[in-house]
Amino acid sequence: xxxxxxxxxDYYTRIIDALNQRETWENRQRLFYQxxxxxxxxxxxxxxxxxxxxxxxxxxxxxxxxxxFVNSAIGNDILSSFxxxxxxxxxxxxxxxxxxxxxxxxxxNFQKExxxxxxxxxxYGRGVSKVIWNDDxxxxxxxxxxxxxxxxxxxxxxxxxxxFIVHIISTSVxxxxxxxxxxxxxNFIKTISGKPSKSVGLRSEIQNEIxxxxxxxxxxxxxxxxxxxxxxxxxxxxxxxxxxxLVVTEDVRKPFTLPYRxxxxxxxxxxxxxxxxxxxxPRGVAEILLPNENLLNKxxxxxxxxxxxxxxxxxxxxxxxxxxxxxxxxxxGQILPQGLKPVQFSQPPFDFQKxxxxxxxxxxxxxxxxxxxxxxxxxxxxRKTATEIQALQSQAAASxxxxxxxxxxxxxHLFKQxxxxxxxxxxxxxxxxxxxxxxxxxxxxxHDEYSIEPKGGLDFVNRQFALQxxxxxxxxxxxNPFVNQGELVKSVLEQDDPSLVRRxxxxxxxxxxxxxxxxxxxxxxxxxxxxPVAIKPSDDHxxxxxxxxxxxxxxxxxxxxxxxxxxxxxxxxxxxxxxxLEQVDPNTSRxxxxxxxxxxxxxxxxxxxxLPPEAMQGQxxxxxxx
Length: 626
What we know:
Layout: H1 3-21, H2 23-37, H3 57-74, E1 80-84, H4 90-106, H5 110-124, E2 126-134, E3 139-145, E4 150-151, E5 165-172, H6 173-178, H7 186-192, H8 204-214, E6 224-234, E7 237-244, E8 247-257, E9 267-271, H9 285-311, E10 315-317, E11 340-342, H10 352-366, H11 386-425, E12 431-434, E13 437-440, E14 450-454, H12 458-461, H13 463-477, H14 485-496, H15 498-504, H16 508-529, H17 541-557, H18 564-584, H19 586-604
Antiparallel strand pairs: 1-14, 2-3, 2-9, 4-5, 5-6, 6-7, 7-8, 10-11, 12-13
Helix pairs in contact: 2-8, 2-9, 3-5, 3-9, 3-11, 9-10, 13-14, 14-15, 16-17, 16-18, 17-18, 18-19
């Protein structure tokens, strides 16, 4: 046996030891999977047709928690914030954020796979995502990996510190043959084909549970191939070897060293909780709530049993009688034989539904997702005050913030790996789309000197809550000279819909300048052609009137002669603006008209009139602030 085979065999032994060490963990995870989708069944029924119900507490909790994680990952207008660690212009940083967001959302399967990662995170306590560069498609590809398909030593805490990482790849024979990188010898393929078993790292019991939930029949005996993709650290980087656990010494794919510049294995893990233990220590929602769900199942089954006994009672004979029970028919209006009467059961000493409700409330509070309305369904005195609800909301927010922070730590790690891959492989495809605009990423902005963090935070998980906070903030600081009013308005629009910032927000100073330019263009058109120009509903009438006054003053100072027909057109245009201003701000309009009349009277008393009084002769009025 050569050195390569000896090394491979040694790693195989260590991997099998790791599998044996986690057997108890696998059995528990299989139980949690079963509890979520089927419930833990009754071991002994009091009679064959007794109820065996499932209260879906675990699945409900997961589905309630999942949207907050999904919104934290992909619910913001931009996936991540970029902070340059060197001097560069802000527009360059903004372009980097948008380019990264476009590539991640629209040119990868990130949005789909992260939802599967979150589901594994909540169910098993740890989600794993694989991040690789597909050189043929020129894009990053993500794969949500079932925790059962990852083997690491039990003491491992992070992938980058693992002694070895094994990704168990389960593929069909046809898919194997379609991959040109795999060894295609027919005899070899037959040798490595077979159903999942403990010897290849996937126990058939676990796979059977998955098939049962998905409604899939058992696979054929030789329709499945299990491969081990083993990652081991070395001086040159992470070495990747792909082989079958059934034929350890033969390579399915030629070994290679991972070429990624970030120097890490292509896996990112998302633990639900951080404890002092090893890889298998984090608990998921199923493990935390399983005792509560079992109790709810028991109470629900007991209630169903009591209802069954009450509706279909047991009979007793008070006097010795001869009765053929086969002739006894349980029908409405049936007359029972003499001496036969139903057994009367006493009322239960407690309320089943109230006990179930209390247990569910405890479970929801444990997960930091309480239902404040369900506690008052039975007694008015159970209703909570506003102060109590606010205190519970604060506790739930703190619990949610902790979960969100841990999830965002993994998300930041994933984004950093992705950005490193883009800087290494994707410096040529620079076009991107952001909302309704397209742009081009400057090549100078694609570098590794960024601090990358997921956008938003806990407040961004609930957009309605964030919008309420933004509106309250705007009301509090409106017209405050120490607060940038434009940015304050933007913060509200961003929470409502990020695209509204670009469509609705307009700097009042910039808008006034645009209006002045429009009026100057209109004046030039009327002077050159003598034709009238109609006002527009979007015109800022104050700004347009100010420009007309300024034009007249400048014409006076230059002693410029204005054609009488053009002056009439200008006057008509001014009157249109005054009439329109009268509709929206009558006081200002009347003040301007009075200034015009006063200026006209004063000008009539002077000599050398250049224009008639009604044409705004004289000193321009004071600024027309509303």
